[in-house]
Amino acid sequence: MVFALTGASCQSQTTSHDQTTQTQSQAGSNEQNPQKCNPLETRKPNSPNQKPAFAEQTRACAIKTNAAFEVQVLTKGLEKPWAVEPLPDGNLLVTEKPGRMRIISASGAMGQPLTGLPQVDYKDQGGLLDVALSPDFSTSRTIFWSYSEPRKGGNATSVARGVLSADQTRLEQVKVIFRAMPTYDGHMHFGSRLAFGPDGMLYVTLGERSDKEIRPQAQHMNSHMGKILRITPDGKPAPENPFLNQSGSMPEIWTLGHRNVQSSAFDEKGQFWVVEMGPQGGDELNLIQKGKNYGWPLVTFGEEYSGAPVPNSVTDKAGFERPVYYWDPVIAPSGAQFYSGKAFPEWQGNLFVGALRDQRLVRLKIENNKVTGEEHLLTDRNRRIRDVREGPDGALYLVTDESKGELLKITPKK
After folding, report:
1. Domain boundaries, the chain
2. What residue range is the signal peptide (predicted)?
């Protein structure tokens, strides 16, 4: 099934997910972003009293894709897919939260679930989550994945690796290489994106498990919660980590002060970016720098879902990193990809982000580490975009977060 779309047609949609529409006045939107342009976002903010720290920090100028493209539904009937990872041969690895990983052919044929995976704790936000190929996959056939691991007293995010069998039916030599601590009896904010950096190290994003009793651990150095970690492919703390020799600190920590990061990607310069699920009115794009503190729950642009302020928080404070960009209203970001392919020259260097709440694919134009334009694509499909990846063919591949999820492919219109 193929749907032909252009950037202009995508731009005309509105969302009813949070019962708001794009009808706010231009003057109202300019209060949030004083840039001399037409901001894409014109809805009423979730947190209208919060003000950006600088002009480009929210409500970027609207941009439109000039090239026509088409969206092909490669596969239907996936159960709560969470990640898609293109393979060098054109096939695709897809995870499903209940605990299945399967290979889908380039033509969309759905393979049987791979055998050999460990048990997952499939409940609410937990289950089998991200998957990433080893940098030497072409020779080692090694795959890494994250999941919520059932443990005595609760669960937590773990990372495992295994070798894809030659017949692509099972995972062999499976080993859990990392277990986040502490174990907690909850079902929210597992984080779990995996990304290999240019340094060959594995960067792991972790949520702070949401509940107010454990949330402060995002600022505690003796906890993995609310952190971005940097580990070796064997699961050991990576050399030159900032807190490697600091007493009382988890040696895997790279940065701290995160709420729930389900989007991460390296750009062409080797810079590491994450898109973080904030509270109501506080989704953030952050440029990650070694050893920095990104604030949660002490610094945030958002508010509690009840509408109450986040306790003891401010929007800006010395010693904490400012987000490069934030969304208000939130989009609920999941999955991220910097585009480098030749299929869409005008997209090169742009960041694509899946949106769950707003049911769309977000395109950001970033110049000199500032967001200078934003476009919302696939708004007419009404699908929760869970992950987005670029294939070796320059196409974008997406999975949608539903009980009968889809695998989508975006290519130039023929």
Report:
1. 76-362+385-397
2. none
